[in-house]
Amino acid sequence: MIDINPKTKKTTFSLDLLEAKKVFLVGDFNKWDHKKNPMKKIKDVWKLSLALKPGEYKFKYLVDDKWLNDPVAHKYVPSPYGGNDSIVVVPADFVYKKK
Predict the structure, then answer these.
(1) Which of 4, 9, 40, 62 is the most exposed place for a label (fewest CB within 10 A)?
(2) Can you tell me the mean pLDDT for 41-62?
(3) From start to end of 1-99, where are the E strands?
């Protein structure tokens, strides 16, 4: 699940996987660094919020060393490595707020 909050200017990624032991958010926004954005388990849901500038970003979840797409991504595009990548779209009217 993807939630874009205009008040906080953050995009929150959520993944409901009770059995997962470790989950990372990986994509264009972190140069596909599979260790940079670990997600936190909050009440049985893995979550992470990022301040993303407007645009489209390819991403996937790395769940216990296995790649997984977001089941409700905004859209999907073919991956150069096979299968598809998830896409999150941060709208142009979503003003980026730098800390």
Answers:
(1) 40
(2) 94
(3) 2-5, 10-15, 23-27, 40-42, 45-50, 55-63, 66-68, 75-78, 84-90
